[in-house]
Design brief:
Number of helices: 12
CATH superfamily of the largest domain: Dihydrodipicolinate Reductase, domain 2
CATH class of the largest domain: Alpha Beta
CATH architecture of the largest domain: 2-Layer Sandwich
Distance between the termini: 52 Å
Helix content: 25-40%
Radius of gyration: 20 Å
Largest sheet: 9 strands, mixed
């Protein structure tokens, strides 16, 4: 006999909420039973959020068949709900995650985990003290081209890493939330956190950071370049930023120089991942069609089923990522290297 499907609440119908719903709808072991959003027009399907990544363009889910709430607290407390997917604006993450923990309901939590280090620590402590699974939704750790890179680094397949450069630049999503750095944290926290976290995932906590950046749309840092200092890697750099609404395509790239090869990823290229070796033609690396959103939810569900800590993304690692981002902000303000 097959197990009953896990009953899921999705909180927030912005770009990421819609994207997560698309992943949930593919699964046979879960069903969305509750949805919340403060905008009643989103709950009727009259209005949909826009963004630079959209895997839910074709719709395919009728909100008339689920319970809807304008208050996320009511959605969490709904007795039918067994697990919660939190895709709310960052300022509500701490309250929502702590309420899930107190209600005994496992939660998947979109990045950035919280507005600051103290918020991430509160969420981690709530999860640990109640024994309720909390997992950060760090999709980049699961994206096939990026997990390929992590595996290549760990295995030493192409020798040691000599340099690594990551880039993530796109249009600011806009609206009151993203134009208020006090709420969203600017591109430094809301966008660049992906690369800071992935660098931590691949290389561990750096010895320090040297960052350069400036505010633009939000009033917080909206464009940043950081050098992450490691004793055994000459150069690890990441650049991230928001542009005003324009026709510049969203850019997500990396270029990693190993001793014996160079790996290049470009989201906008026909062949997104290539490997270059001396004296050989470029090699196209096939990675399959899975996406990080689907894969992170699979890990969340597997961890629920097995009663284990997620192997790829944890709240504890997110606390370290938040600490690094804080150091980047401090480095920009003080115009110097900040040690960790």
């Amino acid at each position: 006999m097959s197990s009953p499907r896990k009953k899921i609440a999705v909180l927030g119908l912005g770009m990421m909420g819609n994207t997560h719903m698309a992943s949930w709808l593919k699964r046979e072991d879960a069903e969305i039973v509750v949805v919340s959003d403060p905008n009643p027009k989103r709950l009727t399907g009259e209005v949909r959020a826009e963004g630079n990544v959209d895997l839910f363009a074709d719709g395919g889910f009728d909100l008339a068949f689920v319970k809807t709430y304008t208050d996320f607290r009511d959605a969490i407390r709904d007795p039918k709900v067994e697990a919660v997917d939190i895709c709310l604006p960052t300022l509500f993450h701490v309250e929502a995650a702590k309420l899930c923990a107190s209600e005994g309901k496992p939660f998947l939590l979109e990045k950035p985990i919280a507005r600051n280090v103290d918020g991430v620590r509160e969420i981690l402590e709530a999860s640990q003290s109640t024994g309720v699974l909390g997992m950060p939704a760090l999709c980049l750790r699961f994206w096939p081209e990026w997990s390929w890179l992590k595996d290549a680094i760990d295995a030493g397949t192409y020798g040691k890493v000599l340099s690594a450069r990551f880039e993530r630049i796109g249009a600011c999503p806009g609206g009151r939330f993203y134009h208020n750095g006090e709420l969203c944290g600017g591109a430094l926290l809301d966008l660049h956190i992906h690369d800071t976290d992935f660098i931590l995932h691949c290389f561990g906590k750096p010895d320090g950071v040297t960052s350069y950046g400036y505010p633009r749309m939000s009033g917080e840092i909206d464009h940043v370049v950081t050098h992450y200092h490691y004793g055994d890697i000459p150069l690890v750099v990441a650049e991230g930023g928001w542009q005003p609404k324009n026709n510049l395509p969203f850019r997500m790239t990396y270029l990693v120089n190993f001793e014996n090869a160079t790996a290049e990823y470009d989201l906008n290229a026909e062949d997104t991942l290539k490997l270059y070796r001396e004296g050989e033609d470029p090699e196209i690396i096939p990675v399959g069609d899975e996406n990080g959103y689907d894969l992170q939810i699979t890990e969340f569900m597997d961890s629920l089923e097995n009663g284990t800590e997620p192997p790829t993304a944890t709240l504890a690692s997110s606390l370290v990522s938040a600490t690094i981002v804080d150091a980047e902000r401090e480095s920009i303000a003080r115009e110097c290297r900040v040690d960790l």
